[in-house]
Amino acid sequence: MQDIAYKLGNSLYLNITNRCTNECSFCIRSKPGNFNEKYNLWLDSEPTTEEIVQAIGDPRQYEQIVFCGYGEPLIRLEIIKEVAAEIKAKTNQVKIRIDTNGHANLFWGRNILPELKGLIDFVSISLNAQNAETYNKLCNPMGGKKVFDAVVDFIKEAKKHIPQVEASVVGLPGAIDIEKTKKIAEDLGVSFRKRPYYEEQYVP
Ligand code: SF4
User: Which CATH architecture has domain 5-195?
Assistant: First the structure.
């Protein structure tokens, strides 16, 4: 049975798609078996708004509700907007977050960030590298060479519409210059987080 929602700490994670515009060499999806040896995140079909709302239950029991994958959640922009609106109608106490690769404006061919204003409290964007060359090597983006700059632009634009913005990088041994990537985040004026590489340990 597929898992649409799963709990990590006090957060509820929503697995809304398996589609993605990257093919990262470090993607947790390439790890065999269930996520955290517990959850089957491979979807037979993408869940509807109603199915996601039902899987959440009472949102007030969580500190955060996070749209994520196995895949790139903003590929399902309309579903995110609908579900976030349903949560906000029930409570303002839970933080709503999106974990994204930052390709959405390229994917949709427009600036989608104003559409998330008032619905999303926090966006965590995978910057993943210190430059386009490293990004392309590690992430194999469908959009090609222009994608890294588009991710940087997405971070800049997110700051205008979302209260909390973070750029993140996977702590991949030897492959990424973490300090240079952190400096890009600092220069953009957003917080920075090094995510654990799944071979070490996967925690939110
Ligand atoms: S962007 Fe995320 S879901 Fe997509 S391939 Fe990379 S790590 Fe996997």
Answer: Alpha-Beta Barrel (3.20)
